[in-house]
Design brief:
By secondary structure, this protein is α/β, with parallel strands linked by helices. It is 31% helix and 22% strand. The protein folds into two domains: 8-240, Rossmann fold; 258-364, Hypothetical Protein Yjia, Chain: A,domain 2. Bound molecules: guanosine-5'-triphosphate (GTP). Residues 232-250 have a biased composition (Basic and acidic residues). One of its GO terms (cellular component) is cytoplasm.
């Protein structure tokens, strides 16, 4: 499809909690393609600090670590982006020349309103919406597919990446998954990926929006016409879309959000080796053991642990799987971890509440 080479393409990256969006961003930022890429990250559950620490970006000239992030510090891009987001992206692009803008939406965002605001905004300067790319968690998609948010993410995409194929155990599962995805979006290319390693030429200058409406996208982008989940379960009042001033500071309480999903953030002091071990056991007990019909269903776990020895570790969990890896040094930090630096553990899921925070503190003897 023809694209305007003078415009800077904007890719909207969507996909459910833990699908592999940040992994894709990390892959793109490190790949050898020669494009200057700007990334906007938005996150649900106040975890952008953890995300940005999970990535390392080296300046190609100096080799030093750089921060390429413009943090949009609230958890609800879909209602604040229209006014704040585009201006923020324009500002970023004005400060440094870039070839490609990638906006990673939260795992719980409907990409429709953001895509629409980019597509219809006359004052976007050199920016042009290029494509909506949806990363799909191959391991969990069949369990999650009844979620309206995920359905819209898939339905709206111009390119679908079926990720985590290493965790899909049989070819019949793969066929079932692909046909379920196809039932929601029969026309977008569907590619299989492991660790989100997609062919970069299929991601850049897709041109899905050049040349006017296609695939009935106009109707899909209008969330009021197809989206009934906002009206039913979304706790926010989107009537005040234009001046969205309500409280998005969800980090330390457990407000219901999209699809009845709540989040809790537990701050952690520097952990001794014994307490770090206890945290690992707590995560195993919490994520691996069934909680019965009324227990929380944890969809996503993220954490930053600071140890008393001054190490930092990142925790990433999706459903029952989790991994603990050494954190990249903080950007612009030459001194390492400060003595009073705190860690935190964030759970996102259904029925996630203060009991979980209490259980965690108890398990760690805090
Ligand atoms: N086994 C396996 N793990 C993967 C793959 N892709 C990503 N992961 C892991 O899945 C976890 C979540 O990946 P992220 O890239 O953070 O997912 P995300 O979509 O950005 O998650 P949210 O920010 O919650 O929306 C991390 O632990 C990744 O290392 C894959 O293809 N295979």
């Amino acid at each position: 499809m023809a694209t305007n080479q003078d415009e800077i393409p904007v890719t909207l990256l969507t996909g459910y909690l833990g699908a592999g969006k940040s992994t894709l961003v990390d892959y793109i930022l490190k790949a050898d393609h020669g494009y200057k890429v700007a990334v906007c990250m938005n996150d649900f559950g106040d975890t952008t600090d953890i995300e940005s620490r999970a990535l390392t970006i080296n300046d190609p000239v100096t080799g030093e670590q750089t921060s390429a992030f413009l943090t949009l510090p609230n958890g609800c891009l879909c209602c604040s982006f229209k006014d704040l987001g585009i201006a923020a992206v324009e500002d970023m692009v004005a400060r440094q020349p870039v070839d490609w803008v990638i906006i990673e939406l939260t795992g719980l965002a409907d990409p429709g309103p953001v895509a629409k605001s980019f597509w219809t905004n006359e004052e976007m300067g050199d920016l042009e919406l290029d494509a909506v790319v949806c990363v799909i968690d191959g391991r969990n998609v069949l369990k999650q597919i009844s979620e309206p948010t995920l359905q819209r993410q898939i339905a709206l995409a111009d390119l679908l990446l079926l990720n985590k194929t290493d965790l899909i155990t049989s070819s019949s599962d793969l066929t079932t998954i692909e046909s379920r995805i196809r039932s929601l979006n029969p026309s977008a290319p569907l590619r299989r990926t492991e660790r989100s390693r997609a062919d970069l030429s299929s991601l850049f200058r897709v041109g899905a929006y050049s040349g006017g409406a296609q695939r009935g996208i106009g109707t899909l982008l209008d969330s009021s016409s197809t989206d009934n989940h906002n009206n039913q379960t979304h706790e926010h009042d989107h009537q005040h879309d234009e001046n969205c001033s309500h409280d998005h500071q969800i980090s330390h309480h457990h407000k219901p959000h999209y699809d009845g999903i709540t989040t809790i953030s537990i701050s952690l002091p520097p952990l001794s080796p014994d307490k770090f071990k206890a945290l690992n056991t707590f995560l195993q007990d919490t994520l691996w053991e069934p909680h019965g019909p009324h227990g929380p269903e944890i969809l996503r776990t993220k954490g930053l642990v600071v140890t008393t020895q001054g190490e930092e570790w990142i925790i990433q969990g999706v459903a029952d799987l989790f991994e603990v890896t050494r954190a990249a040094p903080a950007p612009n930090s030459k001194t390492g971890v400060g003595k009073d630096q705190e860690g935190k553990l964030v759970f996102i899921g259904k029925g996630v509440g203060p009991e979980l925070a209490r259980a965690c503190r108890h398990a760690l003897g805090l």
